[in-house]
Design goal:
The complex is a heterodimer of chains A (188) and B (567). Chain A has nine helices and no strands. Chain A is an all-alpha fold. Chain A has one domain. In chain A, helix 1 crosses helix 3 and helix 3 crosses helix 7. In chain B, the strands form four sheets. In chain B, strands 1, 2, 6, 7, 8, 9 and 19 form a seven-stranded mixed β-sheet that branches. In chain B, strands 5-11-12-13-10-16 form a six-stranded antiparallel β-sheet, with helices on one face. In chain B, strands 4-3-15-14 form a four-stranded mixed β-sheet. The chains are: A mainly alpha (188), B alpha/beta (567).
Chain lengths: 188, 567
């Protein structure tokens, strides 16, 4: 069940993520990596308490230690201002507009997805690319989020089954095991 | 009867500069209150002051979401090259160093070189360069040596005392041997050696063996721009924990100093006023005020306070390191994500030889100096993705990883000459979340930095190719547009220096040789604001050594001395 995106919007984000990060060979691509879930967790971050902004620490449990990334950390009041403004926009609130108004990601996604058209998911790839190019703010925002979702820690919602890291040959968060001196110094 | 005060010293900032001050002053019996405008993720403020568990191998949290602050939305900074650019080119993230307990030490990968003798005496030994105000420091290497040695013991530096032929004399070995060599650095140091350069194992403030109650580094690779989840990095947890353990140090977080307060005569500080997270103002009275906010935030605070500026030099002589990046792409994977981010250095590009002099003269300079060259690994995966174009190119390049796993990089921390027009001041309209004027950098490069970079780059590309790279390219920070700093991006350097320069003469400097403000007798600056020149070395060890020296003097402790071997 999505946190912010509708099922249709979720499907559009997935389809668009696969144009920006298409599957090739051993790389599953943005859709299969769960980029839409990552985006949905970010846009809906404040439907959780603590919000899904800073994952916990020190260890994920993937290389030993107790798994603690999934226990997100509380924000300070000022951090909440910054992250609510990014996500929701400044909405005319003086506390968020000390340097002027900010358009939020929720609005960029909602309006941008609507502008891609109801038929976006059923289009051929070239046409999807053409429509994405006509929505540069959405495309730019989604690309950064797609990279975060594809190659960030899975606790944020993407990098499903660590397939993003496996595809590119990255071991990920290795604490507390770390690497032996030999693994650092020798040719892989 | 003197009026009772809240503490002996209030220390503004908890990075290496403030942490060292707190350690020295509390060890001398002083009571200290430290004020940090950011949050605390470094260590518990309750005995036994253990780790909090907030630090993790998490690229999103640390590199994408400003976990260590400053969040550029809450604390924007602005940038322009000169007045002709208008009030600013843009505002946002400009040279952001962590705004959190631990400051810049939190995220640094802890390369901690000493300066050399000539770095303190560039004016008298090398001479002036037109358009810059190169001056000697009011102290020299021999005087600094025992403070460097003490700083290395305090932080815990691992290194090889015999590795660098250009290094200055030392009174003793490093506290620890070097850690594991990164594979890519093995290749580039062998190539550099073949081509006549002198690479060596980087002195690093990361434990190679258990030290000071903290474990040895386990090479996780999340080093530069992260904190250490296992406390293998000594800076600045070691001095902060020392200070807390005396029971005489209190750290207040989310405490943004609004103003340093002077007495009625205006010659002496009586304390500070700060704003807490609820927006409530508080005053702290103290015998001594130590400003240690770093070379960006310190002048911003002093300009906001409108004090100590009879010289009109506060904020001026802003220096970074001019960074030349020489990138090599290899036909095989180098796993640069394992280890301490950078494990080797060479100093050769700071040595002025006949070739350098000839190139300098061809370009209208009497001489130039480059900087320390770091042999380091590539970026992290999210960053690699964002730097790659979307579409099929993205996936093919990520699978191939020539911008991360097959990448090796030289980063030269090039000396940046002091120019009076390069400065930090207050932006006329951009504000932070507290309503205070944002700091603004006005900065352009001197031809010295550009010429030095153009001289070094092809030589470093030759090393990279000899090491096995199939292709190389060069970039710089700040990026250049012609011979000027670029308009689209500020310097990315996190080495910020020189905005309250140290000297004997109150007309030409802001603080005296013991880092006390000429205009305010009981106020001391312990951060890199005091640097008269930038040298080509990372600033942190020198910040800490100077802070030990200044604060020992402040507390009436004897000067440290050392013996030169063989003398």
């Amino acid at each position: 069940m999505p946190n912010f995106l509708t099922d249709h919007e979720h499907a559009v984000v997935s389809a668009a993520a696969d144009r920006l990060i298409p599957p090739v060979d051993a790389h599953p691509g943005g859709a299969a990596l769960g980029v839409a879930d990552y985006v949905d967790n970010l846009l809906g971050a404040f439907t959780f308490d603590p919000p899904l902004i800073f994952a916990g620490g020190p260890f994920s449990g993937r290389f030993g230690g107790e798994a603690s990334f999934s226990q997100f950390m509380p924000l300070s009041p000022n951090e909440e201002i910054a992250w609510r403004t990014r996500v929701e926009g400044s909405r005319g609130l003086p506390g968020r507009e000390f340097n002027g108004p900010t358009r939020g990601w929720q609005d960029i996604y909602r309006a941008g997805i609507a502008a891609l058209g109801d038929d976006f998911c059923s289009l051929v790839g070239d046409e999807q690319d053409r429509r994405l190019h006509e929505q540069p703010e959405l495309r730019r925002t989604l690309y950064v989020h797609a990279c975060e979702g594809a190659y960030g820690a899975p606790e944020y919602g993407g990098n499903r089954a660590l397939a993003g890291w496996h595809a590119i040959g990255f071991e990920g968060d290795v604490q507390p095991r770390g690497y032996t001196d030999d693994e650092v110094t020798r040719r892989a | 009867m003197p009026e009772p005060r809240d503490c002996d010293a209030v220390v503004i900032g908890t990075g290496p500069a403030g942490a060292t001050a707190a350690d020295v002053l509390t060890s001398a019996g002083w009571s200290v209150i430290m004020l940090e405008k950011g949050r605390n993720h470094l260590l518990s403020l309750e005995a036994p002051y253990g780790p909090l568990g907030h630090v993790s191998n998490d690229e999103i949290k640390f590199n994408r979401r400003h976990f260590l602050g400053p969040d550029p939305f809450l604390e924007p900074r602005s940038y322009r090259r000169d007045e002709a650019d208008g009030d600013r080119l843009f505002a946002g993230d400009v040279n952001n160093l962590p705004s959190t307990v631990g400051g810049g030490g939190f995220h640094a990968d802890g390369k901690l070189p000493r300066f050399r003798s000539v770095d303190f005496k560039a004016r008298s030994e090398l001479g002036p360069i037109e358009g810059a105000d190169i001056v000697d420091w009011p102290l020299d290497y021999d005087e600094m040596e025992p403070y460097y040695a003490e700083a290395e013991r305090l932080i815990g530096v691992a290194g090889d005392a015999n590795g660098n032929p250009f290094a200055e004399w030392r009174s003793g070995p490093y506290p620890m041997p070097p850690g594991a060599d990164m594979f890519g650095a093995v290749l580039t140091t062998e190539a550099a050696t073949r081509l006549g350069y002198h690479p060596y194992r980087a002195p690093t403030g990361v434990n190679s063996v258990p030290y000071d109650g903290r474990p040895a580094c386990n090479n996780c690779g999340f080093c530069a721009f992260y904190g250490c989840p296992i406390e293998a990095k000594g800076d600045p947890v070691a001095p902060l924990r020392n200070a807390l353990r005396t029971g005489r140090c209190e750290i207040r977080v989310d405490a943004c100093v609004e103003q340093v307060l002077l007495d009625a005569a205006g010659k002496s500080a009586r304390g500070v006023r700060y704003r807490d997270i609820a927006g409530v103002d508080h005053e702290i009275s103290a015998r001594v005020v130590v400003v240690a906010g770093g070379a960006w935030e310190t002048p911003r605070l002093l300009l906001r306070s409108e004090i100590a500026n009879s010289s009109d030099l506060i904020g001026r002589y802003l220096m970074y390191h001019f960074q030349t990046f020489v990138i090599g792409q290899f036909p095989f994977r180098l796993h640069g994500h394992r280890g301490r981010s950078v494990t080797h250095l060479h100093d050769d590009h700071m040595i002025i030889d006949d070739d350098v002099l000839a190139f300098a003269r061809e370009n209208g300079l009497p001489y130039f100096r480059g900087g320390l060259t770091e042999h380091g690994g590539g970026g992290s995966p999210v960053m690699e993705g964002i730097y790659t174009a979307p579409g099929l190119t993205h996936t093919r390049e990520m699978l191939d990883s020539k911008m991360r796993d097959r990448l090796w990089a030289f980063t030269v921390q090039g000396e940046d000459l002091p120019q009076i027009t390069n400065r930090i001041d207050l932006d006329p309209s951009v504000r932070d979340v507290h309503g205070f004027a944002a700091g603004r950098a006005t900065y352009d490069v001197h031809p010295h930095e550009v010429v030095a970079s153009r001289y070094m780059a092809p030589r470093l590309e030759a090393i990279m190719r000899d090491a096995g790279a199939d292709s190389t390219f060069v970039a710089s920070s700040p990026p250049l547009e012609g011979d000027r700093a670029g308009t689209r991006s500020a310097s990315m350097s996190r080495h910020i220096m020189g905005t309250c320069r140290m000297g004997d003469d109150p007309a030409t400097s802001v603080v005296d040789p013991w880092q006390r403000f000429h205009d305010v007798e009981n106020m001391v600056c312990t951060d890199s604001s005091v640097f008269p020149t930038s040298t080509g070395y990372g600033p942190t060890l020198t910040i800490v050594a100077l802070a030990i020296r200044a604060c020992r003097d402040l507390a009436g402790l004897p000067k440290l001395t050392s013996v030169r071997p063989g003398s």
